[in-house]
UniProtKB/TrEMBL annotation:
Name of the protein in its database record: HMG box domain-containing protein
Superkingdom of the source species: Eukaryota
Feature: compositional bias, Basic and acidic residues: 17-29, 112-135
Source organism (scientific name): Streblomastix strix
HMG box domain location: 33-101
SUPFAM superfamilies found in the cross-reference section: HMG-box
Region (Disordered): 1-29, 104-200
Gene3D superfamilies: High mobility group box domain
DNA-binding span(s): 33-101
Biased segments, Acidic residues type: 136-148, 171-187
Comp. bias intervals (Basic residues): 191-200
Gene Ontology CC annotations of this record: nucleus
Taxonomic lineage: Eukaryota, Metamonada, Preaxostyla, Oxymonadida, Streblomastigidae
GO biological process: regulation of gene expression
Amino acid sequence: MLGNKAPTQDGEIAASDENKEDGSISQKKLEFPRKNYNAYFHFVLEQEDIISKQDPSMLQTEVISLVSKKWNSLTDSEKKKYDQIAEEDKIRYDQELKEYLRRVKTSNLQNSKEKKAKIENQIKEARNDQKSEVNKEEEEKEDEEEDNNNNNEQIPMIKKKRRRKENKKEDEEEEEEKKEDKDEEEEKEKIRKKKNRRKQ
C-alpha cells in the first residue's frame, strides 16, 4: 500500500490546524504540503485499494502491474475523470503551498519579534543593573558625605564641650587657689592676734 492518501475527488482542502483560542499554528501545519499527483497516480491509488481488498495475497508489484494494464485499457473519456481529480489536486497543492509560505513567513516574523523582544529585555535588565549599581554607589557616597557632615557638625560641639570642661577645671583651680589664699590669710591673722595678745 502506498503511504500517502489521495485528496478527496472534489479537491476539498483539509481543515486548518490553527488553535482557535490563540491563533497559533500547529507544528503539523508548518510541514511542507504534499505534492500533487497526476491522473495516473490517482487511478493507481483508487484501484490499489480495490484490488488489495479483492485479493489480499497479491504482491505490490502484481497490483501495480494489473493497475497499469487497466489504465492503458481506459478510453480518453474515462481518463477525464482522473484528469479532473488531478487538476483539483493541483489547485489544492497550490493553495496549501501559498498558505504554507505565508505561515512560515508569519512564524519567522513572530520568532524575529520574540528574539528582538528577548534581546531588548536583556539590554533593559543590563541597564537596570547598571543603574542600580550607580544608585548604590551614589547612596554610599551620600551616606559617606552625611557621615562626614555629621562628624563636621560634631567637631565644634566636642571642642565646645572640651572648652567648657577646661574652663570649669580652671574655675575650680582658681576657686581652690582662692580658698587656699583665704586659709593662708586666716592663718596669718590668727598668728598676728596671738602675737598681739602676748605683747599685752
